[in-house]
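Workshop exercise sheet. Pairs work together: one partner reads the sequence aloud, the other fills in the structure field after running the prediction. Swap roles for the next sheet.
Pair: D.N. / O.F.
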Amino acid sequence: MAATMHILLVDDEESVTYLLQTEFQEYPEFSIATASNGGDAMNLVRSKVFDIALLDIRMPRVSGLEVLRFIKEHSPTTQVIMLTALADVKNAVEATRLGAYDFLSKPYDFDVLMATVRRAVEHRQLLIDKEVNAGSRPIEIIGSSKTFQDAVGYTRKLAASDAVVLIQGESGTGKELFAQLIHRESPRRTQAFVAVNCAAMPDQLLESELFGHEKGAFTSAIKTKQGLVEVANGGTLFLDEVGDISPLVQPKLLRFLETGEFRRVGGNDARTVDVRVVSATNKNLSDEVKAGRFRDDLLYRLNVVGLRLPPLREHKEDIPHLVAHFLHRKSRSKTLSPAAMEVLMRYDWPGNVRELEHVIEGAVALAHGEIIEPSDLWMNVGLRADAVPVSREVMSASPMASLEDVEAEHIERVLRANDWNRTRSAHILGITPKTLYLKIKRYGIRVPPEA
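Structure field:
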């Protein structure tokens, strides 16, 4: 079943609203709310997110153009179609300037109106996709082991429901990928998938990103901003690293999950949206609750349905498939030697699939020929005592070398292989360009002046 599209119909002529409501009853995918004047329309917009507004221009007290201006300020993704009995060019120009999607004259043909509504729905979705990068790329789920396929099968089952899902797994296991799978396999697939990294933002910014803010709510709030919960209306809201949400924001998220209501920062009006919440964490939230860092009632709300993603060390038989996939993306001409594959199979992969991808990307850059050998592989040997020390060419230069010496030599090797391109080298090394710059300075690596 497709997600419901919410339409606000505003007209002071009761016969018009009655006729439109009757005609829209033939289309169950649309839900209609009505207002007979501009003031009531504004109150509805304050409390609910609408996909489309059908708005009469000529109304007493508060004109349609005033309502249009209010909608564009408070709900920018709502597409407004102006309706008027007068083919008024001046009003049409002004409505377009204020952000109306289209302009139709009464008496209208309902088939034409419906075609315009559907185009407006598509336009709204394009705007949302552009804003939140919902993405249309195919989801690449790689792995044929029973452990991995059990997780995929379970994910597809729970996608059909509308339950709140908590995905737990170590860093690099693909939690956002599985959240996207839940969305793509759900009835909400035609609506937005909005991802929020809860660990990447301070408290006030996270609250503003989630719930929006009113103009003047704080120093830099120069205009009203819709929150991502509103942008995700009808679709899926993915809260990544939800275990890092601070105690100050947790009660507001809890209230939203319990009631579907929220208030923008600096606002007094309670608003409602229809979203499915999927969250993910690499933390043990039960331990966080015991430590007093996470609310137990919020955990219960987030963990209506739980999904655990296995670490790569629990399904190593998928490593050859993953390697083939990454090689196909990075370099279709290069292959791994049996010895190199053996090294990959022996390693414990504390960084999971993400680490494997970085190792293969680095090996493609470092390998001189078409065959990737063990000496072309580099894993972070300092992460685990039992990790396989892979960069044997580097290690053999000085058997008693310190980890810092090994790291310095490897960083220089990666830089040379990439013509001293710091951005590309940092990506291969799995660090930020800033961190790479600091390490170059720390180790005294001499970068050519022209690089």
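Discussion prompt: The chain has three domains: 5-132, 146-310, 314-443. What would you look at next?
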